[in-house]
Amino acid sequence: MCNVPIGGGCWKSKKMKSSHSRLYGDSRGSIGSSDIGGLKFFQAPPSTGGGSVQNFGGRRKPLGFMANAMKRKQSFIQFFAMTGILLLSVRSVGQKYRIHNLTEDTVALKEEQEGLASRMNNIKQSLLAAAALEPTGAFAARLRLLFGEESK
């Protein structure tokens, strides 16, 4: 009677291999599988590297952008999220300085408006003073009508 392991076959009928070849597989055997202790294990083909595809000529061709993105999906999602946050921050800073510049422009326009109103009042007063010197008073009455003032 023979003891049958899970992988099948009889222990007594198998040739005993060295302990190294039983533990690590026989390097002289088939490329895709190894026989360890009477059990057959299939090995994955050698890795082609992180970001390249094996070509027929043996050269490695870099993966395309979309293939690389799908391979490292979480990293790309994190990258795009951080890029979005950075762009929003830059936009916010730009808006902050735009608001600051607009408030400076508003202050300058108010000062200019006050200066113009003061000059206009000075011109009105000097015209009314010059018109009051006229003996008929018709010119002064006409200026008061134009300026919308009541007679004094």
* Rg value: 47 Å
Largest sheet: 2 strands, antiparallel
SSE order, as H and E? HEEEEHHH
Strand content: 5-15%
Sequence of strands across the biggest β-sheet: 1-2
Structural key phrases:
152 residues; two-stranded antiparallel ribbon; rod-shaped; mainly alpha; 9% strand; 4 helices; single chain
What does this structure look like?
There is one protein chain. With about 150 residues, the chain is mostly helical. About 55% of the residues lie in helices and about 10% in strands. It has helices at about 20-25, 65-70, 75-130, 140-145; strands at about 35, 40, 50-55, 60. The longest helix is centred in the last third of the chain and has 60 residues, at about 75-130. The radius of gyration is 47 Å and the shape is rod-shaped. The relative contact order is 0.04.
Blueprint of the fold:
Blueprint: H1 19-24, E1 33-36, E2 39-42, E3 52-54, E4 60-62, H2 65-71, H3 73-132, H4 138-147
Antiparallel strand pairs: 1-2, 3-4
Helix pairs in contact: 3-4
